[in-house]
Amino acid sequence: MTPDMVAELLRQLMKEAVILAAPVLAAAALLSFVLSLVQTLTSLQEQSLTTVPRLAAVAAILLVGMPWFLSRLATYTRVLLTDLHRYLG
Question: Cα–Cα distances in Å, from 67 out to 12, 54, 62?
């Protein structure tokens, strides 16, 4: 396996990881911003007011998006295993 092949495999892997993580991370960041804004405006500085909704939102997104996440992962794995002969020599 040449260094170019390794670089291409890693590029594909990182691309899939970013695509799969982006919805969850974006939702958590947006929710954190909104909750921090609400805490600032109301002067409530309780940690559980931000942690619990953020965890619930991430869990809900993972639950709702699970078919899509698994479909992407299965497609990536199928393509990787189909092209395995190319990487082994």
Answer: 21, 21, 9
Closest to 73 in 3D by CA, of 19, 29, 30? 19
Query: Which amino acid is residue 6, in one-letter code?
Result: V
Residue 77, domain extent: 3-88
Cα dihedral angle (71, 75, 81, 85), rounded to 10 degrees? 180
Q: What total of structural domains would you count in the chain?
A: 1
Tokens matching residue 34: 């909104």
Provide the 8-state DSSP code for 60: H
- Give the alpha-carbon dihedral of 71, 75, 27, 64, to 10 degrees: 0
**31-67 per-position pLDDT tens digit:** 999 998 998 898 888 877 888 989 999 999 999 999 9
To the question of pTM greater than 0.85 for the whole model, the response is no
